[in-house]
Every structure is written in C-alpha cells, then in structure tokens.
Task: structure prediction
Amino acid sequence: MTGRAPGLAAEELVAAVVRPEIRALAAYAVAKAEGMIKLDAMENPYPLPAAARARLDEALGRVPVNRYPDGAADEARTALAHALRIPAGQGLLLGNGSDELIQIITSALARAGAAMLVPEPSFVMYRMNALYTGMRFVGVPLGADFSLDRAATLAAIERERPVLVYLAYPNNPTGNLFAASDIEAVLNATRGLVVVDEAYYAFADATFLPQVSEFPNLLVLRTLSKVGMAGIRLGYAVAAPAWIAELNKLRQPYNVNALTQAAVVALLADTTWIAEQAAAIRAARARLEAELGKLPGTTVLPTRTNFVVIRVADANGMFEGLRTRRILVKNLHGWHPLLANCLRITVGTPMENEMLLSACAELCR
Ligand code: PMP
Result:
C-alpha cells in the first residue's frame, strides 16, 4: 500500500494539482472522417506521384530504426534548404509539424507577464500556446473584411509591448492575405519576435522569406503539411541564427524522427510534383470560387490558400446538410463574431469538388 494517496480518487488528485486553466480545456478534437469526403483540414487531396512514392519506399526501407535519428537532422535540413530556396546565412530549425515550432517559440519567450499579440480570428494554436505557457494573450480583432486593423494593432503593440506576435500569412481560418505593408509596419513597431506563419505559402504567391535578412525580429514559419506531406509532420522555421540558436535549446533531442528525416530527403529530391499539385489546387480553387459564388445567398470571401470560406444564410444547416451527404467541411459559425455563418471548405480533387458543388446547390435551393 506504499505510495498510495489514502482515500482520494484520481479525480480529486487531478483537481488538486492540475492547473485550473488546463482542466477547463477540451482536448483538440479531430473530426472522424471515415467514409466521408474530407474537406475540413486543408490537406492536399492528391496522393504522391509514382516516382516520389518509389523514392520514399526505397528510402524508408533503408532507415535503421533500431538507432536514434540524427539529432541535428542535417541531411533533411540541407535537402529542405536547397529544395525550398532558403536564403543562405539564415538559421533553420525543424519541428514535428509547425505546431511543435509554435510551442517551442512560445515557450522560449513566455516569461512571467509577457504578452503574445495575435489578430483575431486566426489560427487557434497561437492562443492555446499562450495558455499552456501562461503568457498574456492580446487578441486584436481584424477588420470586417478580415484585413489587419493597422491602427488598432499598432496601438496594442504600443500599449502591451508584446514579446511575440503571430501573423498567419495568409490567415487561417479567414483565407485572406494581409497587406505586406501592414506586416512591415508591425515589424517596425515592435522589438518582439514577429512570426510570419506561411503555412499556405504554396497557394499565395507571396512570402516574407527574403525579408528575414532585412528584419532582425522576423521569423518565417512553414510546413510541408499543405503541400502533400501532412502525414510526415514536418515544419520549419527560418530566422537569424541568433534566434534559431536559442530556440534549438528547447527542442527535444530527437524531435524529427528518422522516418521523417529520410522521407524529406527522398521527397524533396525532385520538387516539380509539389509545384504541379499546388497549381492544380489553385486552378480547382478558382473554379470552386466561381461556382460557389453563383449559389443564391452565398458570399465567397477572398482566399489565397487551399481553402475557400463562404458565408451563407445558415451555416449550421448547410454544415449538417453536407454531413448527411457524407461531405465534411469546417463550420466556423460560433468561433468568432466575424465568422458568423461562415464555412471553410478545403479544395479537394476535381471529383470531390463537383460533389461538393452539387450538394451545395441542392441545399441552397
Ligand atoms: N499554422 C497555420 C496557420 C495552420 O493553419 C496550421 C495547420 N492548420 C499550422 C500552422 C500547423 O500545421 P502543421 O503542424 O501541420 O505543420
């Protein structure tokens, strides 16, 4: 009977010791999508082309899984830097998805009382990480057209002196691209680290990567998740070596596993397939925007991502109607006042998109 807390159930022990703000949370819910057309998670709908698949299979077959991976992930970093034209002289940090890098960056800057500033609505994990680390979260509402409210953002920077700013470029879940001049104004107004999160860069024709050498407080965050490799979980951060050296201290020693490292090298040996799939997704997006825009009572909001946000008369009804037709999208209604009656639809394969369009047409009738 040694070591047993007498008379207390696990629930009582949990209540006594787990932080109340953690107990108040619900765990991140990933919707089950068995047998559904899955248009809810911004995945690339296309499988790997045969040549890339063959390179991957061959490379994975050679991984010595009895050994720890290369802690520095040198080969994967070199492959990534070369294939994605990461400017020479910059620091590069890999993560288990960009989610992990958000956690590392936030932990590094979260001293007591320090503020994180984020426009809202934006990617929810920024706020979650502020909560995990005890940072003060300062949300600045976007304009009604989802643009960055430059005056309100600069005023909040002046008032709150954030050590960390997250700007998703383009933004999730709104899909639009903030004006580059607004981002530069933020970079100039703060001494805090500004993370420009380019998860959707492949669909945006815009990037701050070249500006990393210009702004000493800029970190560009990216991921392979939206360009066909969500399953391998690989995100990367580019910033001045002085930032990366500090962030590297928070990284778990083997955060990128050996299979992922080998996969990165194999899959990025030729990147034409990534560009081709991204181009196909952009073309399909244009068709979706045009066709959804013809539906009665439907507004299509501007997007530079691999998803389309629409505003309809009754998002809850439309979401349920799609679900009964085995199509899963994201219902944004209730997330934030600016997202009232909005649905977020990931661009799928041409066939999936046609099924979505005919289901929407039926539901709008
Ligand atoms: N940043 C943004 C803006 C995102 O939308 C997402 C995924 N939804 C991520 C980061 C995380 O991506 P991952 O962890 O798959 O790299």
Remarks:
- The longest strand covers residues 115-120.
- The pocket of 4'-deoxy-4'-aminopyridoxal-5'-phosphate is lined by residues 42, 97-99, 123, 168, 172, 197, 199, 223, 225, 230, 235 (CB under 6 Å).
